[in-house]
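Action item from last week, closing it out:
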Amino acid sequence: MFLEQHYEYDGEDHLFTRHYSFIQCIQDVQYNKAWQDANTNVLVIYGGADIPSISPHNSELLVNALNTMHPGTASYKFLPDTDHSFIKVGTKQDLLRLRQNGQFENYARDNFNPALIEMVDTWIKQIRENPKVGSNL
């Protein structure tokens, strides 16, 4: 019951809506090399109700690491009341209630957080004006 409620376990092969083999293979990806080779601007967004990402601290650590590798290229933004799919849900508890009651799929169709569009648009415009707009937290 706990896994189903908090980790989207389907009782068989899926956790967080992904097949368990996906979760097993992501540990083999060389993220440090991939980020080192990605000489580009990066916007890391953490939603206030983002359960899969666990904590905004992880996003902040990523931005700091990227700015160490490529100074000034990574930015962090916090998007309140928003889940991993950019749905405006309120708190993490609100999201869990929607999922537990089986209401999330219908709710999600009508509740995309439009603040994401403004956030990304503003960031893109900043990048166009100054290619290195990243912020060290």
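Closing note: The first helix runs from residue 2 to 7.
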